[in-house]
Design a protein that fits this description.
The chain is of the alpha/beta class and 410 residues long. Helix content is 34%, strand content 23%. The protein contains 12 helices and 17 strands. Strands 1-2-6-3-7-16 form a 6-stranded mixed beta sheet. It has a 4-stranded antiparallel beta sheet with strand order 11-13-9-14, covered by helices on one side. Helix 1 crosses helix 5.
C-alpha cells in the first residue's frame, strides 16, 4: 500500500474520533472579548495529549494579555520531528472566537450535527483546523513515508484581538523558527494574499450644557456627525480602486462602534467612534492612514470650539506572497483539486488573518483548512456558524498529502 493510500485509510478509520475532538473544542467557550481563553487552551492541550502528542504550554504574562485587550491566553505548540534535517513547517489555527451574538437556532456551544453539518461558534473559524492539523499530523505519522523535517502545530488564542500575543509572540521570542507556514482557511480556496486592516478611534470632546440652554455648550455629537458625514462621502471613492488579485476586491471603510452622551437632557460633551479601514495589498498602509487622518482633520476644522483626537487601535499589514512559498501553494492546489473534485486555485480574500505575522518574519505562508466554500456559507461571525463534516475529512487529507510531499526524504 502506498503512503498516500495509508493516509486515506487512516483518516477514514479516524473520522468519528476527529469529529468528536472538534465537538469537544466547540463545547468550551472561548469568546474574545472578553478574552479569557486559558480554560479552552487547557482543554485543547489535554485532548491533544490524549492523542499522544507532547504539548508545550506558553502562557502569556497577564499584564501583556490585558495590554492587548484580553484577560488571559496560553499558546500551545506541538513539535514532531521526522529526522534531524529538512524544513520546519508550522500549522497555525486560532481558538478564540467572536461572541455568539443573537439569532441562533442551535446552541452555539452544542456542537450539534444536522444533515452532515456541525453547528457552533468557532466550528469553522477556526477550531476546525485544530482538528484538521492534528489529524493531518497523525496521518503523516501513520503513513510510513520516509520523511525529513519537522511539523509544528501552533494553536493560539488572540486572532480576534490582533495576533500580537499569539503567533507574533511565538516568533518574536524564538519559540518557533519555521521555514514555511500554513494558516487556517477554507477548503475550497488556497489563499496567498489578503487585505490589511486599520482601526482608528476618533474622540470628539465638546462641552456639556443643559438642554434648556444648549448654546452654552459645545455639542460633541454635532461635531462627530460632521466628521462622519465627511468620512461617508469620502468612502464612496474607494470603489474606484480594485485589487489585481482575484478575490480581494476594493478597499472598504466601516464605522462599527459609537459611544457618548451623558443623558437625554444634556448636550453631549464627548462622543467616540471606531472605524475599520480595509486596505488592498497594493495600498501602502502608512499612506492610507495619513489620508484618513487628513479627511478627519479637515472636517473637524469646521468646529474650532471642539477637540478631535485620533488614536490608532490596530494596524494589520496586507498579506502578499513571499519567495519560497511556491512549492507549498502548488502542492496544496494540486491535492485540493483532486480531493475536492474541482479546480482549486490560489487567490486572495478580503479579510485579514494571523498569517501576516509569519510573513512579517519573512516566512512564506499560505491559508488552507477545513470549511465550506466561503465565509458566507460558513456563517462565520454570524448566527448558526457551521461546518460540513465531509469537508473536514477532505481538507485533512489535502494537508496530510501536502506535508508528506514537502517532507519526503531525498
Amino acid at each position: 500500500m502506498s503512503y498516500e493510500a495509508r493516509i486515506r485509510a487512516f483518516l477514514d478509520q479516524e473520522r468519528e474520533a476527529q469529529i468528536a475532538f472538534l465537538a469537544e473544542l466547540v463545547k468550551v467557550p472561548s469568546d474574545n472579548p472578553p478574552g479569557d481563553c486559558r480554560p479552552h487552551a487547557e482543554r485543547a492541550a489535554a485532548l491533544l495529549e490524549g492523542l499522544g502528542f507532547t504539548v508545550e504550554r506558553h502562557p502569556v504574562p497577564e499584564e501583556l494579555a490585558r495590554a492587548n485587550g484580553m484577560v488571559g491566553a496560553t499558546n500551545l505548540v506541538v513539535r514532531r520531528r521526522f529526522g534531524e534535517v529538512g524544513p520546519v513547517i508550522a500549522l497555525n489555527a486560532h481558538g478564540d472566537v467572536v461572541p455568539p451574538g443573537e439569532g441562533w437556532t442551535r446552541d452555539p456551544y452544542g456542537a450539534e450535527v444536522v444533515d452532515g453539518w456541525m453547528y457552533g461558534r468557532g466550528v469553522a473559524v477556526s477550531k476546525s483546523d485544530f482538528a484538521t492539523y492534528a489529524w493531518a499530523l497523525r496521518a503523516l505519522e501513520a503513513s510510513g513515508a520516509p520523511l525529513a523535517g519537522t511539523v509544528e502545530l501552533h494553536f493560539t488564542y488572540d486572532e480576534e484581538a490582533g495576533g500580537e500575543i499569539g503567533p507574533a509572540y511565538l516568533l518574536a521570542r524564538g519559540i518557533s523558527r519555521p521555514n514555511l507556514a500554513l494558516g487556517a482557511g477554507f477548503s475550497y480556496g488556497v489563499t496567498t494574499a489578503h487585505n490589511g486592516c486599520l482601526h482608528l478611534e476618533v474622540e470628539v470632546k465638546g462641552r456639556a450644557a443643559h438642554a434648556a440652554m444648549p448654546f452654552t455648550g459645545v455639542d460633541a455629537l454635532e461635531v462627530a456627525t460632521g466628521v462622519l458625514t465627511a468620512l461617508f462621502a469620502w468612502r464612496k471613492g474607494l470603489g474606484a480602486k480594485v485589487s489585481a488579485i482575484p478575490g480581494i476586491g476594493s478597499p472598504q471603510l466601516t464605522v462599527g462602534l459609537i459611544t457618548g452622551g451623558i443623558n437625554t437632557n444634556v448636550v453631549p460633551d464627548r462622543v467616540a467612534f471606531r472605524l475599520d479601514r480595509r486596505m488592498i495589498p497594493e495600498e501602502n498602509p502608512a499612506e492610507a492612514e495619513a489620508e484618513l487622518r487628513q479627511v478627519i482633520a479637515q472636517a473637524a476644522g469646521s468646529f474650532p470650539d471642539a477637540r478631535v483626537e485620533v488614536r490608532r487601535i490596530l494596524l494589520a499589514e496586507p498579506l502578499k506572497p513571499l519567495p519560497g512559498g511556491a512549492k507549498l501553494v502548488e502542492a496544496l492546489c494540486r491535492h485540493a483539486s483532486r480531493v475536492m473534485g474541482e479546480p482549486v486555485a490560489a487567490r486572495g480574500v478580503p479579510l485579514y488573518t494571523d498569517a501576516r505575522h509569519y510573513a512579517a518574519h519573512g516566512i512564506p505562508v499560505v491559508l488552507y483548512g477545513a470549511g465550506p466554500r466561503s465565509i458566507e456559507e460558513a456563517n462565520a461571525h454570524r448566527a448558526d456558524e457551521r461546518l460540513p463534516l465531509s469537508d473536514l475529512r477532505k481538507a485533512t487529507e489535502v494537508v496530510a498529502l501536502t506535508l508528506a510531499e514537502l517532507l519526503r526524504a531525498g
